[in-house]
Amino acid sequence: MFHVFEKHVQRAFASFVHSQLDPEAPVLAEQPKDPSFGEIALPVAFQLARKLKRNPREIAAGIVSGAGAVEGMRSAEVIGNGYINIRFDRGAYGRAALEAFSQPPAPRAGKIIVEHTNINPNKAAHIGHLRNAVLGDSFIRILRASGNTVEVQNYIDNTGVQVADVVVAFHFLEKKTAREVEVLTRTTRFDYLCWDLYARMSSYYKEQPESTAWRAETLHSIEAGHGELSEMGHIVADAIVECHLATMRRLGITYDVLPRESEILHLQFWATAFEQLKERKAIYLETEGKNKGCWVMPGSAFSQKEDDEDSKVIVRSNGTVTYVGKDIAYQLWKFGLLGKDFHYREWKRYDDGHRIFISTTTPGTDATSFGKGTQVFNVIDSRQSYLQDVVVAGLRQLGYTDEAEKSVHFSYEMVALSHRTCAEMGIELSEEDKKKPYAEVSGRKGLGVKADDLIDKLIETAQREVDSRHAEAPAEERRKVAEAIATGALRYFLLKFSRNTVIAFDLQEALSFEGDTGPYVQYAAVRARNILRKLEERGGEMPDFASVYVQGSGPSASQSYNLSGNSLTGAPGNITVTGSTNYEVSTAFNNFYHAYPVLTEEDAEKRALLLWMTQYFHKQLQDTLRVLGISVPPYM
RNA sequence: GCGCCCGUAGCUCAGCUGGAUAGAGCGUCUGGCUACGAACCAGAAGGUCGGGUGUUCGAACCACUCCGGGCGCACCA
């Protein structure tokens, strides 16, 4: 999707620079500060100035005269202290830009595995989980749009402490049988029920510390995989996974496979990894100190510090394995390095026909294959970077240095709650919490904004707007439009912050549909499409731009360039750039829309250009919105 | 104590591997609907880019240092 025309001009200059001045110099093109400077600018002279010990302006002049005429380029001039500003020939540019759309990306070798969502299946998803899933999903869309094969995994930690705690609450507090819990999964808003129950259990542990013995008993049963408690664990986890998938589906997020921790254990994934780790002496049995009796990885393996004080326990003294241990086995499997595989069965089929599989212990009839990736991205919040370092160190210690390099922690900062939103929701903050700039979401305290509540609220707000503007439209259709706006607003909101910014979630801000928001971008796309639709309704036709010689007044080529600013040229990980580019493109279009009535333009050449710009903008925005997972409603 | 992240307009944030007068949105004030539907547009006010030192032709961006804040550093995940 990289701008073909821009690249063509850039290449012409690069070949001159590389052959005559410096074969190493990066020749980058950027958008000039001011559109009147031209369509693109090359700051290459600045890079060369240092190396050649010459004045950048002088170098730039040399490059311009040396490179000479380039096809499709109207002019190149040296401005300021060394910028080369380039203007395009409008006709040539228009043709090239439209052609760029007809070229699908070249497929790339290998398979990228992206793990995201990964929510403990013991309570409803909250706003923090949404950031993870939306970030992961958009990243996947970007990767796919650039020709990569991507597999989406959502790891299910169904044997951990969090699931155990809900089971403890059902069994010991509520005195419920597995069968009764199963009925609850069908007759209640189960994830919400567990949300409250989990918070209740957490405070119960605090008041009655001896009750943690229940947790140990439950964990033991779950790990062993039999008994009433284990059965209940599966019922709870499976039902909650179902809730999470439904929540994510509302935002257009789907998965390919759900590897479960229970299979990591029961299919001996861990046992196999454990043998390898022992064999390669990546871990050792500690014989003294606080970790006596545990298998640990020395701190020197994953941190810069020399002392072994910070060893990480992989196997506890009671013989059970920690989460990190299981995660090392899982990471090995992702690269196909474990020599073992899961069995799979179809978990469900999405309404678009896409099938999602879940790991099982017994061979199924479906011939499916997962894992064996060439690169792995784990979308996990930055608080777990320490754990991710340990996992990668595990691979390295086993000699898989290449795979360790290709294991990327796609990290992001947490979502907290603004004080204003806490107050609105009736959340009481302690004196200590009040001093902090924001309140941290806590599942244990039941403190947070539930994902479905937020989505409902957004739809409700959008619905009011839609109803007031389009009272005549069918109710069902209005509802769909409201949903598109609501999810667009939410996804955009979660993506507009850079990954390492803590989001102090503010409800009023998230509910805003004006300014730098998803609906602003959607609205621009709707406006563009309305022009094209009206043209058709009035019996008009799209002129063949390539055959119309456009030289009249009206918007400049640089304005069209602004409209076409390509959002996929940045690094794939930088989703913020994609989002803000969408916003900038939309702003450019809204200015254009306001300044140039398209359909009423009487000058044929000028009208052709305006229509071309409208169409180009529309395509461009649809493409980039798709990458963000935001749909364009039929009207707004 | 050690590690990672952050500090840019009243508020919330962008600022791509250092580059042309530091940008948005919200909020405030002023103005614009004849349907290509104003979820929009135009304009105004608002900044010693936390402080300091250094590197450089050039620093919000790089290095060092100090100050302020957040998050990690479990036989939880």
Overall tally of domains: 4
Going by CATH, the architecture of the largest domain would be 3-Layer(aba) Sandwich
Average pLDDT, all residues: 87
Give the number of helices: 24
Radius of gyration: 29 Å
CATH H-level homologous superfamily name of the largest domain: HUPs
Alpha carbon gap, first and last residue: 29 Å
CATH class of the largest domain: Alpha Beta
Main beta sheet strand tally, sense and closure: 4 strands, parallel
Question: Would you kindly provide a written description of the structure presented here, covering whatever features stand out?
Answer:
By secondary structure, this protein is an alpha/beta fold. It has 4 domains: 4-88, 2-Layer Sandwich (Gyrase A, domain 2), CATH 3.30.1360.70; 111-266 and 341-370, HUPs (Rossmann fold, 3-Layer(aba) Sandwich); 419-510, no CATH class; 518-628, Isoleucyl-tRNA Synthetase, Domain 1. It contains 24 helices and 16 strands. It has helices spanning 4-20, 44-52, 56-67, 90-101, 127-145, 161-173, 178-187, 190-207, 212-224, 228-250, 261-266, 269-279, 323-334, 385-397, 401-405, 419-424, 431-435, 451-469, 475-495, 507-510, 518-537, 557-564, 575-595, 604-628, and strands at 40-42, 73-79, 83-88, 111-115, 149-153, 257-258, 284-285, 295-297, 312-315, 343-349, 355-360, 375-381, 407-412, 415-417, 439-440, 503-505. The strands form 5 sheets. It has a 4-stranded parallel β-sheet with strand order 5-4-12-13, sandwiched between helices. α1 (4-20) packs across α3 (56-67), α9 crosses α10 (228-250) and α22 packs antiparallel against α23 (575-595). The longest helix has 25 residues, at 604-628. It is globular and about 80 Å long. The two termini are 29 Å apart. The model is unreliable at 549-554 and 561-570 (pLDDT under 50). The structure holds one RNA strand of 77 nucleotides.
